[in-house]
């Protein structure tokens, strides 16, 4: 198995390959002249500020890991931050969400936690990520396009849905896994052990998830507005569409093309202009890739903890 430095070199090599391919696709589809022309109203200071805010979301995600595994004393913030950066790099550059596998592997390597348990935790995190992303994107759409009480009531009911995870965990453990062969029952229970079994853990993780996605969508919406003539609703639904394209298991390496398609679909659905949305989506994606690469370079410098 590769050590952390070998994995870092592999990810960095993949990142350079993805950037080269991405540059070629942009030149072929739109031409770099039209992309660069949009940067006349964007300054280096704005780029730095956007990257700082992106790294704030990485820090929130790292703290979510640290807080969720608070009962495991060996799980510290600095190593959780390193894992978050490396996981983000792998996820953004590898196709079909294959980078997700790096999370349980790094959690085992750094903290000695089992693959099955941390896989369960990753599934739990992803369910909350998808829920929060849909909740934030839908409220922007509801307020922008339809403010009827029915939609607001449905949205409020949707907000309460994560509470169902607790009884579902109990039902799966007691009613479904007990009917499986013992080996599969033990594996299933090990995966479930990575999910919350109490309300405080669920609520704390949900609050951090909302904080992460709220900041992330706000930053991405600001970037889209800076590069295109979009209103707030169009920018938020565009940012939501782009992030949904990266959450779902159908994105290309580096999200090349698929991320832009998600952003444009969300923005145009809310009434935005197609051409300006495309160019703004490309520039947003460029900034995201820049933040991902910087995180990949920084991660090996943070150091690696040894499991106790």
Query: What gyration radius follows from the Cα positions, in whole Å?
Result: 20 Å
Mean pLDDT: 84
Total helices: the number is 13
Count of domains: 1
> What share of the residues does DSSP label as strand, in percent?
under 5%
Overview of the structural elements:
38% of the residues are buried. The protein is globular and about 60 Å long. It has 308 residues and is an all-alpha fold.
State the main characteristics.
308 residues, mainly alpha, 13 helices
Short structural summary:
It contains 13 helices and no strands.
Secondary structure layout plus pairing:
Layout: H1 4-29, H2 32-37, H3 44-68, H4 77-93, H5 102-111, H6 115-145, H7 149-159, H8 165-176, H9 182-192, H10 199-227, H11 232-247, H12 258-269, H13 274-302
Helix pairs in contact: 1-4, 1-13, 3-4, 3-10, 3-13, 4-5, 4-13, 5-6, 6-7, 6-9, 6-10, 6-11, 10-11, 10-13, 11-12, 12-13
């Amino acid at each position: 198995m590769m050590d952390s430095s070998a994995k870092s070199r592999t990810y960095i090599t993949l990142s350079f390959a993805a950037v080269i391919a991405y540059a070629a696709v942009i030149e072929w589809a739109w031409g770099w002249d039209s992309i660069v022309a949009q940067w006349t109203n964007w300054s280096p200071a704005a780029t730095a500020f956007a990257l700082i805010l992106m790294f704030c979301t990485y820090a929130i995600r790292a703290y979510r890991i640290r807080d969720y595994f608070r009962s495991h004393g060996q799980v510290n913030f600095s190593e959780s931050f390193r894992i978050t950066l490396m996981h983000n790099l792998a996820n953004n550059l590898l196709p079909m969400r294959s980078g997700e596998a790096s999370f349980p592997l790094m959690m085992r390597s750094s903290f000695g936690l089992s693959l099955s348990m941390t896989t369960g935790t990753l599934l739990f995190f992803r369910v909350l990520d998808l829920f929060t992303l849909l909740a934030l994107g839908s409220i922007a759409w509801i307020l922008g396009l339809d403010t009827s009480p029915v939609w607001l009531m449905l949205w409020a009911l949707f907000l309460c849905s994560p509470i169902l995870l607790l009884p579902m965990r109990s039902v799966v453990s007691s009613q479904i896994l007990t009917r499986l062969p013992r080996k599969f029952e033990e594996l299933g229970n090990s995966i479930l052990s990575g999910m919350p079994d109490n309300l405080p853990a669920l609520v704390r993780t949900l609050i951090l998830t909302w904080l992460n996605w709220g900041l992330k969508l706000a930053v991405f919406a600001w970037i889209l507005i800076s590069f295109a003539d979009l209103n707030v609703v169009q920018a938020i639904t565009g940012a939501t569409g782009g992030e949904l394209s990266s959450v779902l298991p159908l994105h290309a390496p580096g999200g090349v093309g698929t991320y832009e398609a998600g952003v444009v679909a969300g923005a145009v659905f809310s009434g935005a202009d197609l051409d300006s949305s495309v160019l703004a989506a490309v520039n947003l994606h460029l900034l995201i890739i820049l933040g991902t690469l910087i995180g990949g370079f920084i991660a090996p410098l943070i150091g690696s903890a040894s499991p106790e």
